[in-house]
Amino acid sequence: MMHLLKTSDLSAHDLAYLLKRSAKFKAKPFGRRSVLAGETVCCYFDKPSTRTRISFETAVVHLGGTPLSLSSKDLQLGRGETLEDTARVISRYSRALVVRTFEDAQVERLAAAATIPVINALTDGHHPCQSLADLMTIAEHKGKLEGVKIAYLGDGNNVAVSLAQAAALAGANVVLACPDGYGMPAEISSHARALADRHGGSVSLSTDPKEAVQGADVVYTDVWLSMGHSESERAERHRVLMPYQVNAEVMRLAHKDALFLHCLPAHRGEEVTAEVCDGAQSVIFDQAENRLWTSMAVLYALIEGKLEGAGAAGKH
Ligand code: CP
Ligand code: NVA
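^ thats the input. predicted complex w/ norvaline below
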């Protein structure tokens, strides 16, 4: 039994399998209704969500099951029951547990105690489900992932980490342009670089947004103030990250057919201008739609035991 807590839990083979399975669900959404027939999936969200929560709930229904959406206010967790006991109990009722919360240690503790697959629906450190939809969208529009140049501009946050890991597994070339002090943790970027080396791609870090987007096939950004960041950081983050805004001038430096991606929600006028976000190169709503098909693929693959895990890397 496997969990999906971070994108690097997957082998390159798993990633390819999930992207192929997602495309099959997109072509035929209701072909696997027996997977969850009569069963439930718990969706525990400790932070707000539009795409992740609705796509997972819809995915459960498409697979024949019933989603149970819960917050800490609904559970005894909010009154001090342990994460471990909560995971053990939910494992007796449901086929999977989808969790959005703060520290990564919380999903790790749930996964260690659960006897059903635990899926990270966003933590402070990772957003693996988002990275699958990102790659699916790039593959749909570019026809390939290997050798594609992805420039990520802005905060080196959870979305950036999972994107870098997914792109590394797929043999793409990622450049992350983040201001000093806003890059991803050094151990995460060196691990992503090692993954990329193994799969024929590259992960590089820069503080220069203009250099990073030169010739890029994909330009990606995310919010400057993530859930869990303090409002008191807003003004300083705005000041430091403004030179990393994706605007028309930045898009002109990229490849002329470059795509614009954003995990959403977007803050037009901050990390991206309205002109780019709503412009012809933007594929943000395809990307949002693909959250549904990739959520179905993740549930299906974990419940049916279709994945081998990162430990199996090198077997292929
Ligand atoms: N991209 C994403 O995870 O969106 P939500 O926060 O709306 O789920
Ligand atoms: N980095 C953002 C992503 C939201 C989908 C956050 O964690 O709030």
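The radius of gyration is 19 Å.
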